[in-house]
Amino acid sequence: MSEIKNATFKSLGLSRWLQEALQAMKINQPTAIQKACIPEILKGRDCIGGAKTGSGKTVAFAAPMLTKWSEDPSGMFGVVLTPTRELAMQIAEQFTALGSSMNIRVALVVGGESIVDQAIQLQKKPHFIIATPGRLAHHIMSSGEDTIGGLKRAKFLVLDEADSLLTDTFASDLATCIGALPSKDKRQTLLFTATITDQVRALEDAPIQEGKPPLFTYQVESVDKVAIPSTLKTEYILVPEHVKEAYLYQLLTCETYKDSSAIIFVNRTMTAEILRRTLYHLEVRVASLHSQMPQQERTNSLHRFRANVARVLIATDVASRGLDIPTVELVINYDIPADPDTFIHRAGRTARAGRSGDAISFVTQRDVSRIEAIEKRINKKMTESDKVHDTAVIRKALTKVTKAKRESLMAMEKENFGERKRVQKRKELASKGFRRD
Questions:
Q1: What is the Cα–Cα distance from 111 to 89, expressed in whole angstroms?
Q2: Record's InterPro entries (predicted)?
Q3: What is the reported pLDDT for 58?
Q4: What distance in Å separates the CA atoms of residue 281 and residue 283, rounded to the nearest whole number?
Q5: Strand 357-363 vs strand 232-238: parallel, antiparallel, or unpaired?
Q6: Above 60 in pLDDT, residue 424?
Q7: CA dist., res. 4 & res. 12, Å (int)
Q8: Strand partners, 109
């Protein structure tokens, strides 16, 4: 036991070049999930790894894959599937950084980018493909053998944020992707997640493949019991629905948080855009991240936020999973999610790797049952925040916030914001036989 406790990346069995790459990236000590999973993956075992966000899951699967690859640097060696473009980009960056001294070829295959450029990349037989299931499935279905033929020889499949990938949303695309890979007995399958769901647990009971070592399952501190870190403070503010924006502005500019980096989570793209424009009018350094934005704008927003050019990021749940933005001090749930696990992923953007952070939820009358479900899931009661007081909101913020919101709505109407989504919705309905007369 003490051997694992005092483990180094060298004692875990990683290649010398990779130890040096980790050191150059200031990753000196393996985390619990890395200590547990790296040696077992190197032994050839399939693996289910459960750990809180910010605990080093990417290195836990990337490092042993890269070590194995460097022993036999063949064509398409590993495929990593993940639910969002942003997370795929982040993982691709880590693979590229870790393998830079070894001329590693990494292909990023996500929506919102040129399909032709991606097909050319795939034809060059990259060593690792980091992809969202929808876009990779598209290439498998529509590109030729010379583009995706190399997938048949892949040695690894990773499902990152496996709890999300194993839902009905991704079922069809995931089946297409897995169908193009070698069978289970000819590849290693690695699942990593911050939330152990029934679908993930079901895989533990799958029969052992003949000639393969048994599945290795590891959970850090029982993920289900320790859903959020002890360094995270969870609070709520009771807010009347019609003045939420004023409360938000007041919270972001109060003495405690006026210089803090913050992510504001909302449930709808329309809300994200209204808030971004409203806060911009109020001279808050703000960026946004939602599915209605072109991919380049989404990438730019993330870069601006990481570089602290923008202090506040307004996001739908495309940003709730896995994104490692170490400086986030405050997460605001402007809208309360329906699924308590989504709250855990959102809150996981702060208080990462031992740092402290605050998660504040705006609670209207309609949200009470959702808050109760979240408190039950995280096994912790939220406390009421004292950062914003009703009189201060009315006196300081309401008039100018209302004016800024009105201007934002007028500009959005003029620009026809959301029209692309409405057209897409009409096309989908028409393809299913529905028609609006």
A1: 11
A2: DEAD/DEAH_box_helicase_dom, DEAD_box_RNA_helicase, Helicase_ATP-bd, Helicase_C-like, P-loop_NTPase, RNA_helicase_DEAD_Q_motif
A3: 92
A4: 5
A5: parallel
A6: no
A7: 9
A8: 131
Q: Average pLDDT in the 251-255 region?
A: 93
Residue whose structure tokens are 């320790």: 226
71 three-state secondary structure? helix
Span between the terminal Cα atoms of the chain, in Å: 70
Provide the pLDDT confidence category of residue 25 given band limits of 50, 70 and 90: confident
Question: For 103-152, where are the alpha helices, taking DSSP H only?
Answer: 115-123, 133-142, 145-148
| Interatomic CA distance for residues 264 and 61, integer angstroms | 30
Domains and CATH numbers, the chain: 2-219 (3.40.50.300), 232-420 (3.40.50.300)
66-94 residues labelled b (16+ CB within 10 A) or e (exposed): bbbbbeeeeebbbbbbbbbbbbbbbbbeb
Coil vs helix vs strand at 215: coil
Q: What is this structure's pTM?
A: 0.69
DSSP 307-374: TTSSSEEEE-GGGSSS---TT--EEEESS--SSHHHHHHHHTTSS-TT--EEEEEEE-GGGHHHHHHH
Q: Do 109 and 135 contact (CB within 8 A), yes or no? A: yes
DSSP string computed for 245-290:
HHHHHHHHHSTTTTT--EEEE-S-HHHHHHHHHHHHHTT--EEEE-
Residue/partner pairs of 135-142 with CB below 8 Å, 24 or more apart: 135/109, 135/110, 135/111, 136/79, 136/81, 136/109, 136/173, 136/177, 137/172, 137/173, 137/174, 137/176, 137/177, 139/109, 139/115, 140/176, 140/177, 140/179, 140/180, 141/176
Give pLDDT tens digits for 282-339. 999 999 988 788 878 888 888 899 888 999 999 988 766 666 676 789 999 999 999 8
